[in-house]
Design a protein that fits this description.
Helices cover about 15% and strands about 45% of the residues. By secondary structure, the protein is mainly beta. Among the domains are: about 170 residues, TonB-dependent receptor, plug domain (Ferric Hydroxamate Uptake Protein, Chain A, domain 1, Beta Complex), CATH 2.170.130.10; about 100 residues, Phage tail protein beta-alpha-beta fold; about 70 residues, no CATH class. It has a 22-stranded antiparallel barrel. β45 and β46 form a beta hairpin. α3 runs antiparallel to α5. The longest helix has 15 residues.
Length: about 950
């Protein structure tokens, strides 16, 4: 990291402060209320203020402040020294800090009573009877609880506010808090799918034959883009994935974060802030924020193995998870997690109804006759349409070490995921992709299915130091460095132009060509790294709590070229074909990147923010925030947020918020460029392959047609709502939101010759037939409602929990436009952004999601039933098809075999529900008969289900079982 970069930023602080003064006047004139809805399972935080003392007195004080029962021997604790603690902690974490270095440890039973013991003595988890008997005895055990102690004020600090709250219902924004157990009990095998199963506002759409989007699925919140949700880990900004979705899938033209790089084994809870937060956290937080909180020394050690498979017999998955906490010199801890998984592919492709070989006679559209024995006996299962195969190994370390003046903390993560997905099948009758040799047979005589082998590596490291002064001022300084890289290898493929060259040169026989021609190549590499330096200061005053922070970031984006064989055109010179047959250049299925398209770009960002929390009265709280960000390139952005909470009476609370936001152009949108093969439906309804060049925003093509530099998206977010505590067991929350986004960055349709003279001239000069560009080209409005209702009730000897969660959202493109003073501005806007492009934003995701969970816990048994309803969605792929709503049923049963061992089994999509069959955008449909009129194949196409968007996939019922061991 270049220290000069940070020193130079000091010169800009004065300017920033002046701008802050102007913005403070602006945002303090706005006042609105905010809504919050929370899951009921968040860890509670209490306020502790215990000076250093002998452990006996410290534990008594701890019991008074926590109102918890402590069991300990005076003889054991009288000679031990405790540590001072002051602040907001969970009970477990506070007790660990209190006893670090004292050679004392603690344990608790299921009823919550806590026993103190010597660290070196092995102690099993105490049973309820043991605790109860000890409480009734007078054998010298002391209880540290004082029934008459004043009630401690519960406080919590999570994403959405840097200030601790009196209770979780005092948070100024709607937040879901999803615990480790909730995520694990979803039965899913990846974090993205777990979130989709639990949080209705979150979507994790599936697609097929979409290159990198098959293995890095777009994750969205409230129906917006993947890049409009900010992801944090332990409250620190997470780097994005280096992939940008350029194919026709949800999130086209955007780049998100790889949520699956952090394994569940390392996660303590996930917080989903469903509200704009750019004024607090910076760019990308338009739809909200997802914060992954890592496990610490309060988390139990465990190991888990699981196995699952789909009802059709494929997609087998095996997973091993491990988590353990180690003491660090008695003053700290290291929590280590390891996850290893192996997932096999699924395939739901239909039969290939097109002719694979030559000599097919066309009788009518999509109807053929053949006498070719190869055609008659061919395997018609030529495509692979489903979940890709992958193996993943990931590890996470989270650590903390107490010093006299504060705490040193940090975390590190590493993940490697090797994936294999498929492209379109290349038949033996297509001379451009599988040219004939001397014997008039195709180079690969029976065709081939290219495979894209993707190796994704994701690593990050964070280190920080936090300390508190006596005047209630805390300082937190941290540095984070993260990087995501993708290596693309193409296998079972062919550079058809090279085969054509070998054929016409005549130096090799057809047999030699088939034996020696390369079938694989390194296509290219992507990488994106992020370095962040944060300084945060929090000060408690009599009238308010202030939070002030500085942030310096550096992005680095790289594209490295592949092997020559992956991209080169061997049978063409200066756009002129050398032979009578002109075959396609580059490896089929996934052409590589040439050296002249490599990228190595950096960007620096400087930010400053201020947050103020005020208790205006006993029942009204006001939160406000302002932030200034200065980017290399497009310039600066200032944003603010006002949020308020009004406790109208003991059972009803009103909330609302108003905020502005922004999203800076991603590095990928600014600098990505490549040549890709995309399959689109032409005007005549036929599915055709198109080789499309994606040009970077500062390319000569963009400059020559007058495309302006990308600028930031801007947003205005309003939310209104209420939370009602109808009884001790029933809570209902409801909120409305509206998000207006201007200058949204979108990827254009393919631009080709014949649209304008200037464009024709530029395309000819660039030697391309079709091109696409990133543009500020759309304004959108998203409106919706979130509903969460929870009910808990004791039944017999157990507890019944009911949770109803729903999201209803609608996104509308309110305006489309092309850059002024550009060659595109003279074109009809529908030629720059097609109806297909608009539909991806508006309708490719479900309009509503409803989740109903029933959970019953009785002694050693847990029974869980979940109903997940995915609302209808519409896809345009040549024509438009609306896919109906579907209801999926999940079940899970757990049994506690011993105090430390749990067995479970279950099913996701128990009743084998599939989306509607596909009627648009299909491929390789046809009916082939032999000379005698016998039917060889009669297929509607290989895409039985939409490959463009499948919110819950198309794999059917999944069954699984596993074993969990705590130790």
């Amino acid at each position: 990291m270049n220290s000069t970069f940070y020193l130079l930023e000091v010169n800009k602080i004065t300017l920033v402060l002046l701008l802050l003064k102007k913005q403070l006047t602006r945002f303090l004139s706005v006042l609105m209320l905010i809504f919050i809805s929370l899951s009921a399972h968040a860890d509670k935080l209490l306020y502790f203020d215990i000076p250093q003392n002998n452990a006996n007195q410290a534990l008594i004080t701890f019991g008074q402040q926590s109102e918890k029962t402590l069991l300990f021997s005076f003889e054991l604790t009288k000679t031990a020294q405790s540590n001072p603690i002051k602040g907001y902690y969970t009970i477990d974490f506070a007790l660990k800090k209190l006893l670090r270095g004292s050679r004392l440890n603690f344990n608790r039973n299921s009823a919550g009573a806590i026993a103190i013991f010597a660290r070196q003595s092995p102690v099993k988890r105490l049973s309820k009877n043991t605790i109860d008997n000890a409480l009734d005895s007078t054998n010298g055990l002391s209880t540290g609880i004082n029934k008459h102690a004043p009630l401690s004020i519960e406080k919590i600090a999570i994403v959405g506010s840097r200030t601790a709250r009196r209770s979780i219902t005092d948070l100024p924004v709607p937040v879901d808090i999803l615990s480790f157990e909730q995520l694990r009990q979803s039965g899913k095998t990846s974090v993205g799918n777990m979130l989709q199963a639990i949080a209705p506002s979150f979507n994790f759409s599936k697609s097929a034959i979409s290159d990198g989007s098959d293995v890095l699925q777009p994750a969205t919140l409230r129906g917006l883009g993947p890049d409009q949700t900010l992801v944090l880990v332990n409250g620190k900004r997470r780097h994005q994935a280096s992939l940008i979705h350029i194919n026709n899938s949800v999130g086209r033209g955007t780049a998100g974060t790889d949520l699956n790089a952090i394994p569940l084994a390392a996660i303590k809870r996930i917080e989903i802030l469903r509200d704009g937060a750019a004024a607090q956290y910076g760019s990308d937080a338009i739809a909200g924020v997802i914060n992954l909180v890592l496990k610490d020394d309060t988390s139990p050690d465990y190991a888990e193995v699981s196995y699952g498979q789909y009802s059709q017999g494929d997609g087998a998955s095996q997973q091993f998870d491990f988590n353990k906490t180690f003491n660090l010199f008695e003053q700290g801890f290291i929590n280590a997690s390891l996850s290893i998984s192996d997932h096999q592919a699924t395939n739901r492709a239909g039969q290939d109804g097109a002719c694979i070989y030559q000599n097919c006679i066309s009788l009518a559209p999509n109807k053929y006759k053949t006498s070719n024995i190869n055609e008659i006996t061919a395997d018609r299962n030529t495509f692979s349409v489903g979940n890709p195969k992958y193996q993943q190994q990931s590890g996470v370390i989270n650590a903390g070490y107490s010093l006299n003046s504060g705490e040193l903390y940090g975390f590190a993560s590493y993940s490697k995921r090797d994936n294999t997905s498929a492209a379109f099948f290349r038949s033996a009758r297509n001379s451009s992709t599988n040219p004939p040799l001397q014997d008039q047979h195709a180079t690969l005589r029976h065709g081939y299915l290219p495979e894209i082998a993707t190796s994704i590596k994701d690593a990050s490291i964070n280190i920080g130091y936090v300390f508190e002064l006596d005047d209630d001022t805390s300082f937190d300084a941290s540095y984070t460095h993260g990087k995501n890289s993708i290596n693309y290898q193409i296998k079972n493929s062919l550079n058809a132009s090279y085969a054509n060259l070998l054929h016409f040169q005549g130096a090799l026989s057809d047999k030699d060509i088939r034996a020696t021609i390369p079938r694989s190549a390194h296509a290219y590499d992507l990488s994106l790294s992020l370095q962040t330096l944060n300084i945060d200061i929090i000060k408690d005053l009599n009238w308010a709590t202030l939070a002030l922070g500085l942030e310096f970031r550096r992005d680095n984006y790289q594209i490295k070229s592949g092997e020559k064989y992956s991209y080169f055109d061997y049978d063409t010179i200066e756009n002129q074909s050398l032979f009578s047959i002109d075959s396609v250049a580059g490896t089929q299925g996934f052409p590589g990147v040439a050296p002249d398209s490599t990228v190595d770009e950096q960007r620096n960002v400087r930010s400053i923010y201020l947050e103020i929390t005020q208790q205006l009265s006993t029942n009204i709280t006001l939160d406000s925030a302002i932030r200034f960000d200065d980017y290399d390139g497009f310039g600066s952005s200032s944003n603010f947020k006002i949020a308020a909470h009004w406790q109208s009476d003991h059972w009803l609370t009103y909330r609302a918020a108003f905020n502005t936001g922004f999203r800076a152009p991603s590095m990928q949108q600014l600098y990505f460029n490549n040549m890709s093969t995309q399959y689109l439906v032409a005007d005549d309804g036929a599915l055709t392959s198109q080789k499309i060049a994606t040009f970077r925003n500062d390319s000569s093509l963009a400059s020559n047609i007058g495309i302006a530099e990308l600028k930031q998206e801007t947003s205005v977010n309003i939310s209104l709502g209420a939370v009602a505590n109808l009884s001790n067991n029933v809570t209902v929350t409801l909120d409305y939101y509206r998000i207006d986004i201007d200058d949204r960055i979108v990827l254009s349709s393919s631009l080709y010759s014949g649209k304008s003279p200037i464009l024709d001239q530029v395309l000819t000069a660039e030697n391309v037939d079709k091109a696409q560009l990133f543009l500020n080209g759309a304004d959108t409005r998203t409106q919706g409602i979130d509903l969460i209702a929870t009910w808990r009730y004791p039944i017999e000897s157990g507890t019944l929990d009911l949770t109803l969660a729903a999201n209803f959202t609608d996104t509308e493109v309110t305006r489309l436009f092309s850059p002024e003073a550009s060659a595109l501005n003279s074109l009809p806007v529908e030629q720059v952004f097609s109806e297909h492009d608009i539909a991806i934003i508006e309708s490719w995701q479900p309009q509503n999601r409803i989740n109903f969970n029933v959970s019953y816990q009785q002694e050693n048994w847990l029974f869980q039933l979940t109903l997940n309803r995915f609302g209808q969605y519409s896809v345009i792929d040549g024509e438009k098809q609306t896919y109906g709503a579907e209801l999926l049923t999940d079940i899970r049963v757990e049994y506690q075999l011993t105090d430390s061992t749990k067995f479970y089994f279950g099913s996701n999509n128990l009743f084998d529900v599939y989306p509607d069959k596909n009627t648009i955008g299909n491929s390789r449909q046809g009916h082939i008969i032999d000379e005698a009129g016998n039917s060889i194949v009669d297929s509607d196409g290989v895409f039985q289900y939409s490959r463009r968007s499948a919110p819950f996939g198309y794999n059917g019922a999944y069954f699984y079982a596993g074993l969990n061991i705590n130790f």
